């Protein structure tokens, strides 16, 4: 098996790196095609950027065709290249968020343009034709079966892990004041709008005058000005002086952000997995999480689960975590225990089992799509 590893610092890039580190006998195929072509959403179909992306795509397919073994694409957007191959390939699917954006009037990220639709069609066709599919949660597996019609027997659930060398309880905090922590982008699916409204309700109550909301992470992709909407909401709810937008936090500093928070809040409308929940738990931060998507599956009974569409309920849940010491401590203890179940070592072992299954079953003759 050959594992494609991608450049970049996103969660799907880190997934490939984490597996590569723990599967030393698996050959790696490094590429920057994900960073410089695949991730270029909302790019015009007729543009210089699209021509540059097409050149990178063709060169990458030629590189893949020259390989003498099965390929593992570590994220679902790389599945578009599988349709051009004759050799077997495995795809890891992290979520179907952009598939849902093809169907929804209100997007979870951004409404796909014509170029996006063409490429996403190749992505989902590539998933359907894979020799095996790895889903990072039962939620994602169910979506694959229901929405893409993938044969359930070909989908293997392998949970992602937490790097416990990095994410652990630490005796440090980046701020002296009490704060809520949100880690992630500002795409609509992350539901930061509901958290800002819930935070404003807490501030208006007068019970938490010194409380602040710290948001860590870049706004999102190039396809929309997500930060502009965040700033509009902060001004609308009159909490500008109490909200800190920290775009870039060094990975080594992130555990202190988690450990020092009153609680970490993840009110997402949809997640295929949800790293911040487990990272927070591993660092001893109580978690308030959405009852939607995969988060209840990942968090188990170690988080306060709440409807993501009810800002008042989010505010009440946060308030209880802050004021009820016994409840807070119970979440913290269960969270550390829950996070310990998710390791990259386990993910690597279970991924290897999928590789073994693919190698044991003779690959049917595959008709590759022509390359230009």
What does this structure look like?
The chain has 372 residues and is an alpha/beta fold. The protein folds into two domains: 2-161 and 344-360, Glycogen Phosphorylase B (Rossmann fold), CATH 3.40.50; 179-339, Rossmann fold, CATH 3.40.50.2000. Helix content is 42%, strand content 13%. The chain is built from 14 helices and twelve strands. The protein has helices spanning 11-22, 33-38, 48-65, 97-103, 114-128, 138-147, 192-204, 226-236, 254-260, 275-282, 295-299, 311-323, 325-339, 344-360, and strands at residues 2-6, 27-31, 71-73, 89-93, 132-135, 155-157, 179-183, 212-216, 243-246, 263-266, 287-290, 304-306. The strands form two sheets. The protein has a six-stranded parallel sheet with strand order 2-1-3-4-5-6, with helices on both faces. The chain has a six-stranded parallel sheet with strand order 9-8-7-10-11-12, with helices on both faces. Helix 11 (295-299) links the parallel strand 11 and strand 12. Helix 7 packs across helix 12 (311-323) and helix 10 crosses helix 13 (325-339). The radius of gyration is 21 Å and the shape is globular. It starts with a strand and ends in a 12-residue tail after the last helix.
